[in-house]
């Protein structure tokens, strides 16, 4: 069984913000594969289904970003999913909108959601799909930028990166991760 986690903050206030691009990617993936996100346990909203013949759980932690690991760890334990079968999707300030990057391990790089996952999963070897949201233009502060909604002008770019994230996440199911990185990075 595979697990794909999108990071974000719960609530309507944050729904379409840059920091919630991981949630938006999970929603797009769920829609594409007909998986209903209707289970609410382990401090998470999730759903199970099939993608390319493999059973998959799609997850949106309902903790705030900096506590994401509190939702993911018990869910992995319940379904007996190994950390190597997890893909985490989240926002990255160092990539421009429309760009994505896969990584098989590394530090949190200042991302509090990833920091929480590393802490609760006990490893930095967590497969990640980083979706670019770009750096804020001056004088906007980073915290204000990531909690801003995408502008109307950015909607086409946002849709492009969400479509690409669905392709990557779908291919994650049955493609070795190194090959996946070579294909999409």
Automatic annotation (TrEMBL):
The record marks 9 as: Discriminates between blocked and unblocked aminoacyl-tRNA. TRNA binds at residues 14, 64, 66, 112. The active site is at residue 19. The record marks 91 as: Stabilizes the basic form of H active site to accept a proton. InterPro entries: Pept_tRNA_hydro, Pept_tRNA_hydro_CS, Pept_tRNA_hydro_sf. Its main location: cytoplasm. Gene3D superfamilies: Peptidyl-tRNA hydrolase (3.40.50.1470). It catalyses: an N-acyl-L-alpha-aminoacyl-tRNA + H2O = an N-acyl-L-amino acid + a tRNA + H(+). The keyword Cytoplasm applies. PANTHER family: PEPTIDYL-TRNA HYDROLASE. Belongs to the PTH family. Catalyzes the release of premature peptidyl moieties from peptidyl-tRNA molecules trapped in stalled 50S ribosomal subunits, and thus maintains levels of free tRNAs and 50S ribosomes. Hydrolyzes ribosome-free peptidyl-tRNAs (with 1 or more amino acids incorporated), which drop off the ribosome during protein synthesis, or as a result of ribosome stalling. This is Peptidyl-tRNA hydrolase. The gene is pth.
């Amino acid at each position: 069984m595979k697990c794909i986690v999108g990071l974000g903050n719960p609530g309507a206030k944050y729904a379409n913000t840059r920091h919630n691009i991981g949630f938006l990617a999970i929603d797009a993936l769920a829609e594409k594969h007909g998986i209903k996100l209707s289970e609410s346990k382990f401090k998470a909203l999730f759903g199970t289904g099939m993608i390319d013949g493999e059973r998959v759980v799609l997850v949106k932690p309902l903790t705030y970003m900096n506590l994401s690991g509190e939702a993911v760890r018990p869910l992995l334990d319940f379904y007996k999913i190994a950390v190597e079968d997890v893909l985490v999707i989240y926002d990255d300030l160092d990539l421009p909108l429309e760009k994505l990057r896969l990584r098989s391990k590394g530090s949190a790089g200042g991302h509090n959601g990833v920091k929480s996952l590393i802490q609760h999963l006990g490893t930095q070897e967590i497969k990640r799909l980083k979706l670019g949201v770009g750096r804020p233009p001056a004088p906007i502060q980073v915290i204000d930028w990531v909690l801003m909604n995408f502008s109307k002008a950015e909607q086409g770019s946002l849709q492009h990166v969400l479509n690409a994230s669905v392709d990557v996440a779908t291919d994650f199911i049955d493609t070795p991760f190194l090959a996946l990185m070579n294909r999409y990075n």
